[in-house]
Amino acid sequence: MKNKIKITGIFVIAVLFAFTSCINDLDTVPLDKDVVTSENVYANPDNYKNVLAKLYAGLALSGQEGPAGANDLSGLDEGFGQYLRAYWYAQELTTDEAVVAWNDGNLRDYQEMDWGSNNEFIANMYYRVFYQISLTNEFIRETTPAKLDERGIDGTIRSEIELYRYEARFLRALSYWHAIDMFANVPFVTEADIVGSFFPEQTNRNDLFAYVEQELLDIEPNLTAPGEVEYGRADQAAVWTLLAKLYLNAEVYISQPKYTECLTYCNKILNAGYSLEPEYQHLFMADNHRSNEIIFPITQDGNNTKTYGGVTFIIRAAVSDHMDPDKFGIDGGWAGTRVTKEFVGKFLDLETLKNARIPYKSAVEYPVIYVPGGYQAASGYSEGDWAPDAAPNLASVNSDNNYEGYIWFADANSEYKFTEGPNWDVNWGDDNADGTLEANGANLVAPETGMYKINVNLNDMLYTSVKTDWGLIGDATAGGWDNSTPMEFDAERKVWTVVAELGSGAFKFRANDGWDINLGDNDTDGILDYGGADIPVDEPGKYKIELYLGTPDYTYTMEQFSSDSRGMFHTDGQTLEIEDMFEFTNGYAVTKWKNITSDGNIGSDIEYVDTDFPLFRLADVYLMYAEAVLRGGTGGDEATALGYINMLRERAYGDENGNIASGDLTLDFIIDERARELYWEGQRRTDLIRFGLFSGGDYLWSWKGAVKEGRSIDAKFDIFPIPAADVIANTNLTQNPGY
What we know:
Residues 1-24 form the signal peptide. Keywords: Cell outer membrane, Membrane, Signal. By secondary structure, the chain is an alpha+beta fold. The chain folds into three domains: 51-298 and 615-718, Alpha Horseshoe (Serine Threonine Protein Phosphatase 5, Tetratricopeptide repeat), CATH 1.25.40.390; 368-467, Immunoglobulin-like (Sandwich); 470-560, Immunoglobulin-like (Sandwich), CATH 2.60.40.
């Protein structure tokens, strides 16, 4: 459908004259012949597309060089200050979808929802919006018919420049929509305002809404049809989507419902040839520019779009080194962003999750012996082999010279020995391969790949080694007490794991489909005992169960599991509860975004990512359609809306098990489904405000209002303040109410 060509690169020719100074003589010719002016930039027809590219790059980059060194705006750090990163902060950190572990400046005000007019992050968002508007105004001003006539530009290149001008108007409308949504009553400037030093007049939300609406309606017929322009540039479908979003929120913006108008433009998009990406994860990977679902992206490129904002920020901030950055296609994580437990509750039942999750127990410090061998590196225990100080241990739980542990051997015929300490001073092998140990004896051998239960009795100098495969058994499992449900071994993590449907009843762990080796939990404390008590399952459902062997104590976890593939969380080493916002391991981490392609290749650079940000995509249109129908808009129907919603859920679940019935399609369902489908895509704040759940106390989440349990907040926070410095500087401005 689309020409899959990315607009990338940093275009330094662009508009350095969009902001004017107090110099009155704007016609002064520069003394330095190398100084770039609008006159010599626009005299060359080939430069117009370069300047247009700078306008698009204004959403993706923060300056002229990237990632730092020539910031477009002074003040905030260039990485923090990039447009998309600033927008993500404002739209996500203020909601249940994200918290950040960094305490830079006043960033915490976002997640505590107690900001004021001096917050530098809010000011940065405001100035990014208006810098972008000033750039687009300058380009629009320089591409009038009169200007092109003056320069003798005609023919095909003139037609192309006229199209660029409409795209610039779209980008200006996009930023003015951000201003409507976040700041409401703002200064207003267009290309018609004379370049020079003056204080812009303030408009109001109603008038700005009318302006943006009319601009988009004027632009619509003059842009290309969907898919007929380079990927990354705006076409008619981008205009339709922005109109639909403007109308969906009209009741908030101008106190007038415009759901019928929303449906009008949703229907245009739905008939434009877009289709859902078959795999949800692929929408957030390094080759997502191939997707036929994305309507308008903010493009990223690891070689040419170098920024510490954008999707580079989204991916790196969500990862810490204990999550293995290689799996995300990056060279290291920043250990910043996670989600609240209330957001996790959109996918999982929090009460069941809390009751079922058994905490991982750290190993008790029992006496140990060491098991060095030629298997250590291949099995992932250490970088080198035959290294007692880096080898797995066996432990004596009763301190009686009887040692036990489970060791993974990645290769058949792996050799090993036992040592008394982390050195070779005292070691044992088996000269006759008869199960009897001798000092300095021959190497022992694990004949097959697998995890072995190894017991050593140093009182009688005996040992045993039994290969084990584990499963679940019990009346809570599908096989009852007769047939084990097999578990899979994760060799990297050394964990046995299974996702299983469990009914009411109980289960145990057992090895090799027999009862010789079985584990239960006598105290329901997460520590397993041989022949121990059955483990109860009070709430039927799907569970992810993990068995941690190795060195005693042996432990397990069981947590409710969602079949919804959109719920992409890293939970190992993370807590559900956020006791400390500034501790990354508090709160589940998110694995939704990656700098890895859909076929498993790492992006072009491991520091800056290739993954584009889908600002508008088809799934959002499905959800807007359904919501507008439920809110009384005409031009759609509930049966069609239900079909669209179930298309999203069939993709998420991989089958029809997640489908809903017509009676389940409610506004309460829609706000939660939008969270499940669109989280971390810069939508949540706007959605919560539209549903009346952002301010007030009807919906609380962790740390809302700077209280761990959450609290009601004032409705003034539905709109951000105009930065105090701007109100002081421009006497035409009146601060938003309450600030």
